[in-house]
Amino acid sequence: MYYYDPYHVMGLPQPDHNGISYDYEYERQLGSFFPPFGGGSMGPPGQGPSGFPPFGPPSQGQGGGPPTAPPPSFVPTQTQQAQTFAVDPGSIRGCLFRYTYVWLRGPEQFWFYPTFVGRRSVSGYRWNGFRWMYFGISLRQIQSFTCI
After folding, report:
1. Confidence check: pLDDT of 69 > 60
2. 124, 115 in Cβ contact below 8 A?
């Protein structure tokens, strides 16, 4: 469950909560259960506070739905990229609405179809082997990616 984070509002560094790194950008993208300080107004219709997408996956009518076909049946070769702390949002933005193969830090790798890129996170649809599932992840967890 997400909660409103006063550290971010006051510009203070983000603490770890029980050893789990808290990604405020991911919460803003998905929406919050609490209104922002100062009463804040809702964004345009179909969007959450501050104009970010509403909680959950976008509807098909918003143009951000999952692909209608499965991803390619091959695994692309991983290109060597310099080790960085996090993937730059500008670099993965070029993969929006394209089949993207992602290698995480560790053994996980999968096909992904990004539909939103924030400052510190990316969301879209992840292929689970049978269907597309809505998914979001911190850019710090991505080791490398390639889109086709």
Report:
1. yes
2. yes
